[in-house]
């Protein structure tokens, strides 16, 4: 039985395997194919955005001013909020 927490802490999230190039859509109408292709295009764009964001987060951890994220949109290192 394995644990999600190892000697060095929790495992990083796993990346799902990439989707197949194109499924067989030959049995669908042209309109249905267009709809599915549009969804697949959006999915690919979202995956690319997520990958870029994750790379940015990794760089951000190494060098806080490297990326413009909501946390440091002003190119300022993250400042913890004051405790109440």
UniProtKB/TrEMBL annotation:
PROSITE patterns recorded: RABBD (PS50916)
Example GO BP: regulation of synaptic plasticity
Residues covered by region (Disordered): 1-26, 65-84
Biased composition (Pro residues): 9-20
A single Gene Ontology CC term: presynaptic membrane
UniProt-recorded Gene Ontology molecular function terms: small GTPase binding; transmembrane transporter binding
Name of the protein in its database record: Regulating synaptic membrane exocytosis 1
Taxonomic path: Eukaryota, Metazoa, Chordata, Craniata, Vertebrata
